[in-house]
Write a structure and sequence with these properties.
By secondary structure, this protein is an alpha+beta fold. It has helices at about 10-15, 20-40, 85-95, and strands at about 1-10, 45-50, 55, 65, 75-85, 105-110. About 30% of the residues lie in helices and about 30% in strands.
């Protein structure tokens, strides 16, 4: 088994247009999806992220408001799932509520270990 990071990008414009009731329904959908992963023993971790942030550049320590210029690039949250391979990770992700947003995308990447002594 390997762990896979799912990064959720975009969808903020659509999310910000939702009514409070629609936001609550979406949160229920997220909870249901996460519970299904947990019941299968596939959920490792996952949380939403604030829309606010800063970008730090290594060149001169430049700090800019951000995190990104384009809303479609903004990371809104993450989930770490356990799967046999990337194909299973993609299959587990197919019913994610983030895909309800026209601009919502998800990047799935395997987490590799780094030996630190």
């Amino acid at each position: 088994m390997s762990n896979f990071l799912c990064l959720f990008r975009g969808g903020f414009e659509d999310y910000n247009k939702l009514t409070q009731e629609e936001k609550e329904a979406l949160n229920d959908d997220w909870k249901k999806w996460l519970e299904e992963l947990k019941e299968q023993g596939k959920l490792v971790d996952g949380l939403p992220l604030s829309q606010d942030g800063k970008v730090v550049s290594a060149k001169g320590g430049v700090i800019t408001n951000g995190p990104f210029a384009e809303g479609a690039e903004l990371v809104g949250g993450y989930t770490i799932i356990s799967a046999q391979d990337i194909e299973e990770a993609l299959q587990l992700s197919i019913n994610n509520p983030h895909f309800n947003f026209a601009e919502g995308t998800m990047e799935v990447r395997e987490i590799v270990s780094l030996e630190v002594q």
